[in-house]
């Protein structure tokens, strides 16, 4: 697909609902008592995979675009799926289901697309087996034998919301409490939603403690716009001359706002207005305008707060003066593709000065860039980051496969071109 160029980026927009919150609303809604009404749901391919899996386990889910109603059947209301649960391209669906299905009274099998079958599952299967779970294999397809579970105390070796959530979902079915100690704080949407639904959950610093309860109670869930999708337009607004974009109703949960902190530290003009809170999740309108950026260091506890935004932050760094160093981001290697290798390989095609390191990349900004024929590796975040980069590279650019934006942002290109 040829990427059309826009002259500048001006105007107001919204982005689709938060992917992480949308998945969790369906999953927790399915095992809560009563109807969970979700508005602002993300009807992207990953979240539709989650809906499909729960329908196969007997949950009645009415889905009409952004409005979804999940008719919860209680903690023990799921029924055995008649066929293998297919999670598509979604790491979140796959890993969270592992935890949820471990403690059921039935057996199940999970698999996904080629990318999912390459993504490591040991990070969830190992601690789950300590809880008594029986899961065969370290890669999909995974066979899960429903088992009696017991709580554990677990020090997480990687900062991962998926691992944490998987263990919390298993913990709902375990005998005794489950204590999870995070290495660094990862996104906490599960903790907030569990609390709102009546779970016995306590968060203190990096410790999360959960005790089983007889039932969760359905809630209304208002999903804010996904900051990971807004990130593409925040970067675009900052790097394009004569630009000013207001993105309305974006989730600004502190565990996700690393992109705002980094862009500000690079000198971006960013303003947050109309901050509001619903069930512990904050949202705001974000305005970004053309800025002169300078390079920065991104590492440590900041990484989990912007892990999915690193490809587009790397694109911003190409247009910043000086050097940007990204460290401690080895997790990028086990996403939909190896995002360190993919970013470095593709950005070099347009003349970027960028090098790959073991746990990140070094970008020297300010070069003149030219258009190129880019590969997306079937990775939605690569496709959208390259589309942003292509706007400022001289000449034409194309993407080999742009359809992957369906995963998290089906209308991405329409929204991009509308701004121009
Ligand atoms: O669901 P999936 O495929 O893992 O999606 C990604 C993404 O870029 O959309 C990662 F590839 O987001 C993850 C994120 O990186 C979603 C997520 C969650 O909802 O809990 C947590 C992060 O992953 P992790 O491994 O750090 O827990």
From TrEMBL:
<feature type="binding site">
    <location>
        <position position="162"/>
    </location>
    <ligand>
        <name>phosphoenolpyruvate</name>
    </ligand>
</feature>
<dbReference type="InterPro" id="IPR013792">
    <property type="entry name" value="RNA3'P_cycl/enolpyr_Trfase_a/b"/>
</dbReference>
<feature type="binding site">
    <location>
        <position position="91"/>
    </location>
    <ligand>
        <name>phosphoenolpyruvate</name>
    </ligand>
</feature>
<keyword id="KW-0028">Amino-acid biosynthesis</keyword>
<feature type="binding site">
    <location>
        <position position="19"/>
    </location>
    <ligand>
        <name>3-phosphoshikimate</name>
    </ligand>
</feature>
<comment type="similarity">
    <text>Belongs to the EPSP synthase family.</text>
</comment>
<feature type="binding site">
    <location>
        <position position="24"/>
    </location>
    <ligand>
        <name>3-phosphoshikimate</name>
    </ligand>
</feature>
<feature type="active site" description="Proton acceptor">
    <location>
        <position position="308"/>
    </location>
</feature>
<dbReference type="Pfam" id="PF00275">
    <property type="entry name" value="EPSP_synthase"/>
</dbReference>
<comment type="pathway">
    <text>Metabolic intermediate biosynthesis; chorismate biosynthesis; chorismate from D-erythrose 4-phosphate and phosphoenolpyruvate: step 6/7.</text>
</comment>
<dbReference type="InterPro" id="IPR023193">
    <property type="entry name" value="EPSP_synthase_CS"/>
</dbReference>
<feature type="binding site">
    <location>
        <position position="20"/>
    </location>
    <ligand>
        <name>3-phosphoshikimate</name>
    </ligand>
</feature>
<keyword id="KW-0057">Aromatic amino acid biosynthesis</keyword>
<dbReference type="GO" id="GO:0005737">
    <property type="term" value="C:cytoplasm"/>
</dbReference>
<dbReference type="InterPro" id="IPR006264">
    <property type="entry name" value="EPSP_synthase"/>
</dbReference>
<keyword id="KW-0808">Transferase</keyword>
<dbReference type="InterPro" id="IPR001986">
    <property type="entry name" value="Enolpyruvate_Tfrase_dom"/>
</dbReference>
<protein>
    <recommendedName>
        <fullName>3-phosphoshikimate 1-carboxyvinyltransferase</fullName>
        <ecNumber>2.5.1.19</ecNumber>
    </recommendedName>
</protein>
<dbReference type="GO" id="GO:0003866">
    <property type="term" value="F:3-phosphoshikimate 1-carboxyvinyltransferase activity"/>
</dbReference>
<feature type="binding site">
    <location>
        <position position="381"/>
    </location>
    <ligand>
        <name>phosphoenolpyruvate</name>
    </ligand>
</feature>
<feature type="binding site">
    <location>
        <position position="308"/>
    </location>
    <ligand>
        <name>3-phosphoshikimate</name>
    </ligand>
</feature>
<feature type="binding site">
    <location>
        <position position="339"/>
    </location>
    <ligand>
        <name>phosphoenolpyruvate</name>
    </ligand>
</feature>
<dbReference type="InterPro" id="IPR036968">
    <property type="entry name" value="Enolpyruvate_Tfrase_sf"/>
</dbReference>
<feature type="binding site">
    <location>
        <position position="160"/>
    </location>
    <ligand>
        <name>3-phosphoshikimate</name>
    </ligand>
</feature>
<feature type="binding site">
    <location>
        <position position="119"/>
    </location>
    <ligand>
        <name>phosphoenolpyruvate</name>
    </ligand>
</feature>
<comment type="function">
    <text>Catalyzes the transfer of the enolpyruvyl moiety of phosphoenolpyruvate (PEP) to the 5-hydroxyl of shikimate-3-phosphate (S3P) to produce enolpyruvyl shikimate-3-phosphate and inorganic phosphate.</text>
</comment>
<comment type="subunit">
    <text>Monomer.</text>
</comment>
<feature type="binding site">
    <location>
        <position position="335"/>
    </location>
    <ligand>
        <name>3-phosphoshikimate</name>
    </ligand>
</feature>
<keyword id="KW-0963">Cytoplasm</keyword>
<feature type="binding site">
    <location>
        <position position="162"/>
    </location>
    <ligand>
        <name>3-phosphoshikimate</name>
    </ligand>
</feature>
<dbReference type="GO" id="GO:0008652">
    <property type="term" value="P:amino acid biosynthetic process"/>
</dbReference>
<feature type="binding site">
    <location>
        <position position="19"/>
    </location>
    <ligand>
        <name>phosphoenolpyruvate</name>
    </ligand>
</feature>
<dbReference type="GO" id="GO:0009423">
    <property type="term" value="P:chorismate biosynthetic process"/>
</dbReference>
<dbReference type="GO" id="GO:0009073">
    <property type="term" value="P:aromatic amino acid family biosynthetic process"/>
</dbReference>
<feature type="domain" description="Enolpyruvate transferase">
    <location>
        <begin position="4"/>
        <end position="416"/>
    </location>
</feature>
């Amino acid at each position: 697909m040829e990427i059309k160029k826009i002259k500048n980026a001006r105007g107001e927009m919204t982005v689709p609902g938060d992917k992480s919150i949308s998945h969790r609303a369906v999953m927790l809604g399915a095992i809560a008592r009563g109807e969970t009404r979700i508005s602002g749901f993300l009807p992207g391919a990953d979240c539709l995979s989650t809906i499909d899996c729960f329908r196969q386990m007997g949950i009645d889910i009415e889905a009409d675009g952004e409005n979804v109603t999940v008719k919860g059947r209680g903690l023990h209301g799921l029924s055995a799926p008649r066929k293998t649960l297919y999670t598509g391209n979604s790491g979140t669906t796959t890993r969270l289901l592992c935890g949820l299905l471990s403690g059921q009274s039935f057996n199940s099998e999970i698999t996904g697309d080629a990318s999912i079958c390459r993504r490591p599952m040991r990070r969830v299967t190992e601690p789950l087996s300590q809880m008594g779970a029986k899961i065969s294999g370290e890669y999909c397809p995974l066979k899960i034998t429903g088992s009696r579970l017991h709580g554990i105390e677990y020090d997480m070796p990687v900062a991962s919301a998926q691992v944490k959530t998987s263990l919390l979902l298993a913990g709902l079915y375990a005998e005794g409490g489950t204590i999870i100690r995070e290495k660094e704080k990862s996104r906490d949407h599960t903790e907030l939603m569990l609390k709102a639904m009546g779970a016995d959950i306590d968060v203190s610093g990096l410790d999360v403690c959960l005790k089983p309860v007889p039932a969760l109670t359905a809630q209304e869930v208002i999903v804010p716009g996904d900051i990971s999708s807004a990130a593409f337009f925040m970067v675009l607004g900052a790097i394009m001359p004569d630009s000013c974009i207001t993105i309305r109703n974006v989730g600004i949960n502190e565990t996700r706002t690393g992109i705002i902190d980094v862009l500000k530290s690079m000198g971006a003009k960013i303003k947050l207005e109309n901050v509001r809170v619903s069930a512990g999740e904050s949202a705001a309108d974000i305005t970004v305008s053309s800025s002169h950026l300078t390079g920065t260091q991104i590492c440590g506890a900041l990484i989990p707060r912007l892990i999915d935004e690193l490809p587009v932050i790397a694109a911003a760094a190409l247009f910043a003066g000086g050097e940007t160093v990204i460290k401690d981001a080895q997790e990028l290697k086990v996403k939909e593709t190896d995002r360190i290798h993919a970013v470095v390989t593709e950005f070099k095609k347009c003349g970027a000065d960028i090098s790959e390191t073991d746990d990140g990349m070094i970008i020297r900004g300010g070069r003149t860039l030219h258009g190129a024929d880019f590969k997306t590796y079937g990775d939605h975040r690569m496709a959208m980051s390259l589309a942003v980069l292509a706007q400022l590279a001289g000449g034409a650019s194309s993407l080999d496969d742009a359809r992957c934006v369906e995963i998290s942002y089906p209308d991405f290109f329409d929204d991009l071109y509308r701004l121009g």
